[in-house]
Design brief:
The chain has 312 residues and is an alpha/beta fold. The protein folds into 2 domains: 2-89 and 280-297, NAD(P)-binding Rossmann-like Domain (Rossmann fold), CATH 3.40.50.720; 90-272, NAD(P)-binding Rossmann-like Domain (Rossmann fold). 31% of the residues lie in helices and 17% in strands. The protein has 9 helices and 12 strands. Strands 8-7-6-9-10-11-12 form a 7-stranded parallel sheet. The longest helix has 19 residues, at 90-108. The chain starts with a strand and ends in a 15-residue tail after the last helix. The relative contact order is 0.14. Keywords: NAD, Oxidoreductase, Pyruvate. Residues 103-277 form the D-isomer specific 2-hydroxyacid dehydrogenase NAD-binding domain. This is Glyoxylate/hydroxypyruvate reductase A. GO terms for molecular function: NAD binding; oxidoreductase activity.
Length: 312
């Protein structure tokens, strides 16, 4: 059973070494660097694959995405009719939880204001409401949001979520287009964890920002760890400058790296991180994938298979 590493813009040598350490009895080849017979490839490990390559592998059994978002994979207009498997890994989930909680607390506990007065050598205290004065809305209620919700609740925040469709939940969950307005009106700190699809592209725009409740004296705040394509950056910049948004944290952008002359760098009360909220760890990711392959070869179904109609 031969595996092909098919990635764009990633450090292939690191992934290759980790695969050989994790699965020494499973051959692996690199697209663009190793000669291979397309008919010999059974599995593909990929990140943003070049369009059309997957269709050239006639005996392909499954494709495993090496990151959380599958928009790069779904951009291929000629995908083969095999299971496409999303990365759902405990290590990535924990990392994302760390980043989300850090950003919520950064804005709620006014860390940026305190850093500003520190630079000015001022000893100054700001009034601080209790956590239960703020309502955190988790937009996109999948694995990552379900991990974040109980942590935020344990800190005292009021937490609710929004999902495309109804699903079981331990918190108040709004769903569908009809539930979005009520969700936004009850949200002071919006945490976006949506996948990027044609339905969600550009959803974080001026219209959405205007619908946020912001009843906390420190809100509204926008936090996006999903995909850059979800946000209309000119609208976010304008909202930060006008005060319609009291703060924001963005880990993702439409263009990455963010150009050095982009005005977002100088936006007030904005935290920028370079798409590092939940970086895939090769060791943990590949152990997860190998376990999936072994179970699949025993006749068990693959988990976390992409719904190609929904796009995630």
């Amino acid at each position: 059973m031969t595996t092909l590493l098919l990635s764009t813009g990633w450090h292939q040598d690191e992934w290759l070494a980790n695969w050989r350490a994790t699965a020494p009895d499973r051959p692996i080849l690199r697209h663009g660097q190793d000669d291979y017979d397309p008919a010999a490839i059974d599995y593909v490990l990929t990140w943003k694959p070049p369009a059309g390559v997957l269709r050239t592998l006639p005996n392909l059994k499954a494709v495993f995405n090496l990151g959380a978002g599958v928009d790069g994979l779904m951009a291929d207009p000629d995908l083969p009719p095999v299971p496409l498997v999303r990365l759902v890994d405990d290590d990535m989930t924990y990392r994302m939880g760390e980043w989300v909680i850090l950003q919520v607390l950064t804005h709620f506990r006014q860390a940026l204001a305190y850093l500003d007065v520190q630079r000015k050598h001022e000893w100054r205290e700001f009034e601080q409401p209790a956590a239960n004065a703020a309502r955190v809305g988790l937009m996109g209620y999948g694995t990552l949001a379900r991990h974040c919700a109980p942590i935020l609740l344990s800190l005292g925040f009021t937490v609710h979520g929004w999902s495309r469709s109804q699903r079981p939940s331990d918190i108040t969950l709004y769903y569908g287009a009809e539930g979005l307005d009520a969700f936004l009106k009850r949200t002071d700190i919006l945490v976006c964890l949506l996948p990027l699809t044609e339905d969600t592209r550009g959803i974080l725009d001026a219209g959405l920002i205007a619908r946020l409740g912001g009843e906390s004296p420190l809100g509204p705040v926008l936090i996006n760890a999903g995909r850059g394509g979800l946000q209309t950056e000119a609208d976010i910049l304008a909202a930060l400058r006008s005060g319609a948004l009291k703060g924001a944290s963005l880990d993702v952008f439409n263009e990455e790296p963010l150009p050095a002359d982009d005005p977002m760098w100088d936006a007030p009360n904005l935290v920028i991180t370079p798409h590092v909220a939940a970086v895939s760890d090769p060791t943990s990711t590949l152990r997860n994938i190998v376990r999936q392959i072994e179970a699949f070869e025993r006749g068990e179904p693959l988990r976390n298979v992409v719904d190609t109609i929904r796009g995630y």
